[in-house]
Amino acid sequence: MIDMQARIVRYGELVPCKTAFIDAHTPGSNQKENFTIIGGGVSESPDQHVHIKDTPGFNIGAAGQPPKCRNSLHSHRTAEVFFVLKGRWRFFWGRWGNAGEVVLEEGDIFNIPTGIFRGFENIGTDYGMIMAILGGNDAGGGVIWAPQVIEDARDHGLVLGKNGKLYDSKKGQKLPDGVTPMPLLTDEELRAFPEPTTSEVIPGYVARYWDLMALADRHPAKVIGEHGVLRDRPGFEVDFLNHNSARDEVIRSDRNDVLMIMRGHWRLTWDGGEAILAPGDTCAVPPNRDYRLVPSMTGEASLYRVRDTDDPAGATWRD
Question: Has the keyword Isomerase been applied to this entry (predicted)?
């Protein structure tokens, strides 16, 4: 029997890594914290702590940053979905980060198109946290960095090897024999990265929290999926539940259900146990496991539920 308590990752017990990526020493990005909750994610550091190593077809992570701290421009081969748990965040994209941007408030969700350079920064007044869903068991094979990010990092002591691992010259580390630096993308390769405008991205890729609260008034809102508000099939689907759409009934799926709490406290019960889930907590319910999930008190309550599908973890899908 699977130990359900061991499949709950509490917000207050998240273990950060401050050297997860190549821009860890770059001014403006050197205060960020990376969290890997389910699966290995795309961290480039051996110091990254992984809370639940088994992957359900996707990875779950998080980024925590103080005000004015940013994550540098990068791209992914598979889906990257963020929702804002705490704070106010600006997401920007394009070769130089100036093709378009959108500001997300707490609870908003962004299914960033694959194949574009993207970055984000905390523009709030307090420490902020965004939760991330990355497509694929291996999260698409890693991160593709804009050339200037690799060059800036090298100037501050960090070198990324072609093997996808970081080496810190400030700690006396150097590339092992036979390992060359990660090559910069050529001009021809860079031309393959689209530069969509804000008006092209926001309608099909961003969903606002209060719109989802209204949509979930009677039934869970389909957020990402073939019939979702954000129509996509990235190898997983995302639903949104609130205190009105949650039902005190048995839920049983032949898929992996990952519960990510946004607001309020939720009572999760299963045969032989129960737990109260709080904002920022994540729970991985395995396939074919009966469970019940309802708010444990009155007031605002909401969560995102991620479920694996048979769709391949590839580029963003559209008709």
Answer: no
| 8 A C-beta contact, residue 134 and residue 76 | yes
User: What's this model's pTM, rounded to 2 decimal places?
Assistant: 0.94
Alpha-carbon distance of 256 to 287, in angstroms, equals 5
- Residue in 45, 19, 50 with CA at minimum distance from that of residue 32: 19
Go through the domains of the chain in sequence order and give each one's CATH number: 4-206 (2.60.120.10), 210-308 (2.60.120.10)
Nearest one of 67, 18, 68, 16 to 37, comparing CA atoms? 16
> What's the mean pLDDT when you consider all of the chain?
94
Please report, for residues 14, 24, 144, 232, the alpha-carbon distance to residue 78 in angstroms, rounded to integers and kept in the order given. Answer: 25, 23, 11, 12
Beta strand 236-242 with 266-270 is: unpaired
Q: What would the pLDDT profile of 231-258 be if each residue is shown by its tens digit? A: 999 999 999 999 999 999 999 999 999 9
Q: How far apart are CA 133 and CA 151, in angstroms?
A: 28
Where the chain has pLDDT below 70, the residues are: 1, 139-141, 317-319
Distances from the Cα of 119 to the Cα of 58, 100, 186, 288, 319, angstroms: 21, 11, 20, 37, 26
